[in-house]
Design goal:
The N terminus and C terminus are likely disordered. The chain is globular. Helix content is 55%, strand content 0%.
Length: 102
């Protein structure tokens, strides 16, 4: 067994998927958005959260995706990612007025 009752393969697999999604988001290639979107309904909250982050970096119509998914999302971490996702090219601003890295 690994951490928090998960076997080590599952934990490592989740991390690998998240790393791949971060890399997909960093490409800036909108064609990769479909790959990230397929993981929005993954049973592990790590993958959907990373998928939202990637999609926020790849698609301009993140508001449409947010509207379609936010109402039914039950995981608090994934909901938080949806709330912070910004359209491509928009630099989020923190509540204190300081720029946040995209």
């Amino acid at each position: 067994m690994g951490f928090a009752g998960q076997d080590q393969h599952s934990t490592g697999s989740d991390r690998s998927v998240c790393n791949a999604l971060h890399a997909i988001g960093n490409t800036g290639d909108a064609a990769m958005a479909a790959v990230a979107a397929r993981l929005l309904d993954d049973p592990s909250p790590m993958a959907p959260g990373a998928a939202v982050l990637a999609l926020g970096r790849l698609v301009a119509d993140i508001e449409r995706l947010r509207a379609a998914h936010l109402l039914t999302e039950t995981d608090a971490t994934v909901r938080d990612e949806w709330c912070h996702a910004q359209p491509t090219g928009v630099i989020p601003v923190s509540p204190q007025g300081e720029d946040r890295d995209p």
